[in-house]
Amino acid sequence: MRSKMNENAIEVHNLSKDYFISSRGENWRAVVKNIYKPEKTAVQAVKALNFTIKNGEKVGFIGKNGAGKTTTIKMLTGTLFPSAGTCRVNGYDPTKRINDFKKSISVVMGNRSQLFPDLTPRDYLKLLQSMYDIPEEIFQKTVNDLAQILNVTSKLDVQTRKLSLGERMKVEFLAGVATRPKILFLDEPTIGLDVLAKRDIRKFLLRLNKEEKLTVFLTSHDMEDIATICDHLIIVNSGQIMWDGPKTDLLERFNQNKYITFIKSENFIESKLGTKIIDQDDLSVTIKVPVEKVDDQIAQLARDNQGSDYQINDLKLEDIILELFAEEKEK
Ligand SMILES: Nc1ncnc2c1ncn2[C@@H]1O[C@H](COP(=O)(O)OP(=O)(O)OP(=O)(O)O)[C@@H](O)[C@H]1O
């Protein structure tokens, strides 16, 4: 049943997913035994997730490989049943897979195309138009506007198999939003794309979010994607939530420090630094220093003749997330 207006876009309560995999056995005896009585081991991919996403938020769902991101998206979009817990998406229970629910969301996966290689994008879009029963005039305007923002107008009548990866992904995006979903789920959507294609897609998402209040749920290993698009971050580790909150809160938590990167001198001695090394190679080294100590630290390094070409940088989102994972490991 549809819940009331002004609802949250996504509500997740204790959502869990276990996969069961059968082991083949270490020797032929075990293999034969397994045929008659298969032994199954459970993989806990998602462990009791709880989070809420408001309408119109742009959420970055971040985690290392195997953290449970795709599994979560599959449960939120109704392609996988949870082992425990519940979720509501646009007020619907995804497991019911009713048409109104399916029409209210779209999914774009960077590694799986939804287009038909033999059709042109325009033919595919017409198919969507009739499936979603969208009036001709509105649909044409939507497609033309969106194609222009994405710089793919000239590609709409080219057979899909002849498009480059970037052009195809742009058409996937276009098709994803041409049906006017309320939530767009994106799983690694810019994987393998060049900087220009990424820029067009980021601009496109920000515009749709602003103008249409489209809720965006994005998983990406590209921290530039996350940093430019998202305002709410959920970081997962081994199927559990490690951080859930506004991006600004996370940046603030780490903004008491700066990174200093410099070229090592011939006299460079690690033990003289007196501070944590973040990264180093044969040529350069990066250290983390509290903001108020940056000047003193550089003066000291210069006095000790430790290096040259000092550069002071803020911690980027990518660095912060790496530090969060490091903190978690130390616990
Ligand atoms: N069909 C499946 N059967 C068994 N185990 C699975 C299946 N799909 C995923 N897993 C396991 O569940 C865990 C979570 O996988 P998932 O694909 O959700 O991670 P992810 O965060 O999306 O990773 P990536 O960033 O690499 O895409 C992993 O340990 C994975 O091996």
Strand and helix layout:
Blueprint: E1 8-22, H1 28-36, E2 40-54, E3 58-63, H2 69-76, E4 84-89, H3 99-104, E5 105-109, H4 121-132, H5 136-149, H6 165-178, E6 183-187, H7 195-212, E7 215-219, H8 223-229, E8 232-237, E9 240-246, H9 247-253, E10 257-264, E11 277-280, E12 284-290, H10 294-303, E13 307-314, H11 317-330
Parallel strand pairs: 3-7, 3-8, 5-6, 6-7
Antiparallel strand pairs: 1-2, 1-4, 8-9, 10-12, 10-13, 11-12
Helix pairs in contact: 5-6
Task: Please provide a written account of the structure.
This protein has helices spanning 28-36, 69-76, 99-104, 121-132, 136-149, 165-178, 195-212, 223-229, 247-253, 294-303, 317-330; strands spanning 8-22, 40-54, 58-63, 84-89, 105-109, 183-187, 215-219, 232-237, 240-246, 257-264, 277-280, 284-290, 307-314. Helix 5 packs antiparallel against helix 6 (165-178). With 331 residues, it is of the alpha/beta class. Strands 5-6-7-3-8-9 form a 6-stranded mixed sheet, with helices on both faces. Strands 11-12-10-13 form a 4-stranded antiparallel sheet, covered by helices on one side. Strands 2-1-4 form a 3-stranded antiparallel sheet. The chain has 11 helices and 13 strands. The protein folds into 2 domains: 8-14 and 46-245, Rossmann fold (3-Layer(aba) Sandwich); 256-314, Alpha-Beta Plaits (2-Layer Sandwich), CATH 3.30.70. Bound molecules: adenosine-5'-triphosphate. Adenosine-5'-triphosphate binds at residues 19, 21, 43, 45, 63, 65-71.
